[in-house]
Amino acid sequence: MSKKKLVFLYFITSLIWINVSNFIIHQLVPSSYIPMVERSKEILYILVTGGFIYFFLHKKQELTVSKEDQNRLSTLINSMVDFVNFKDGEGRWIEANDFGLQLFQLENVDYRGKKDSELAEYTDFYGDALKFCEISDEETWENRKITRIEEVLPVPDGSTKTFDTIKVPLFHSDGSRKGLVIIGRDITEKKEMARQLAESQQQYKSLFEYSPDIVYMLDLDGTITNLNPHFDVITGFNRNEMIGKSVKTILAKKYKPFLKRFISAVVEEVKPIMYEIQIQHKNGKPITLQCTSLPIIINGNITGIIGYGKDVTILRKTEERLRRTEKLSVVGELSASVAHEIRNPLTSLKGFVQLLQVEDEKHQFYYQIMSDELDRINHIVGELLLLAKPQHLKFTKAEIQKLLNDVISLLRTEASYYNVQIESVFPEQEIYIDCEPNQLKQLFINIIKNAIEASINGGTVSIGLELLEKDLVVITVKDNGCGISKGRLEKIGEPFYSSKEKGTGLGLTVSFKIVQSHSGTIRFDSQINQGTSVHITLPAIHGNDRKQKKQQALS
Known about the structure:
Helices cover about 50% and strands about 25% of the residues. The protein contains 16 helices and 17 strands. The protein has a five-stranded antiparallel beta sheet with strand order 2-1-5-4-3, sandwiched between helices. The protein has a five-stranded antiparallel beta sheet with strand order 7-6-10-9-8. Strands 12-14-15-17-16 form a five-stranded mixed beta sheet, covered by helices on one side. Helix 10 runs antiparallel to helix 11 and helix 11 (about 365-390) runs parallel beside helix 15. The radius of gyration is 53 Å and the shape is rod-shaped. It starts with a helix and ends with a helix. Mean pLDDT is about 80; it is low at about 545-555.
């Protein structure tokens, strides 16, 4: 009602009240009391009208405050980037913010007083979504507690949006439904970031877990913080037992003093640092690792070191074998040119010495020395030629026990000269190999002769033979002599390297070449003053092949 109508109504009501009340007073009240009653009537009128005016002013003020609060609330919820909706106890919409109306394409719809199913008729695209909201609202009412769910809404461009929705049911004191407050936050980007983070973590985990190299993490004190499973494969140690320990635990003694300097270098350089170290396998064998380390930087601060170690043990051994092969090649070329030049004058010298031995009996002692030395030169030239010219090997089937027995019989005299006993333990089963018998005899002579010369007076040289399951035969020659130092052990087999006073270093070089040509391996184990063991592994003829060949020989 307008203000003018209220004022007009007030005047009319007042006039009626004055005239009617005066008429009643003059008709019913004695004349002596009329002035007093009229004053009382006027006071009552003022109180009543004043009360009404105060009531209306108070209500107007409350209404103004309520409208201001409503405007503030409307401004607040409309400024929110979340979907906000208020419903009554029957599920009818009371208020919704602009974000929610735009979300469900209800900007131009009079939504107040309507349920979700009724509003679904105004939007074809979100009809099903609104109907589902009504179902989930009912579940919230039944649960009678705050409910939090994730709702996926389609978008006209074909994508979807995910909302983290909170529904708060309100009840009257008697338990009846009062209203429902719904707040939905768009977490689509958050979910996408979480998905990308999960994928990134899975990629990192795959790189870490399935890398064929050791992946390690250290803190700035050198403590191992993490290791990938391939650490167990390469080193034989359990990574869970190593995590939390200092990296010094697995480092060789010679690297430990440089750990702090290494960590400082990685931190100061702030770039990958490559190096090569040796560690011990759990079984005691050395492992060569090619490592690359770089700093872990988090929020601009270096918190540790991450790196990977590649097992290059086999590669380095292959490179070493290649270097030895190259040396043999150089020695071979040199031997080919030198050996022939030596043998020509050597033949003349040998002939003249023999002639002088016949004609001059006075100096026989000196002639014998000259003859022995010429024989020694001829033997060295023979070894040089063996290295120089490629050998056309004609492999035949041979019994390994017979070859070893022939060599042992040949060397027993020399062993007796050094007061050394030769012991042999061979299996009764006949073991055959495809080989060039003369070269194998030369190999065994070189190895056993070295063992005899290295043995102490009264020592023993043990020769063993064993057939492995994979058709491999292992010949072991062991002595209890002076042994070989670690430094010399690494150079065994190199041309012209020998620990003997008059040795040429060609004997073992030839031996290595013979083993290689027979597709075998040779390994030396030795300790100072505890003797040396030589293990020669050669391929044996398969059991079925041996039976067939034996049957053919009998037939």
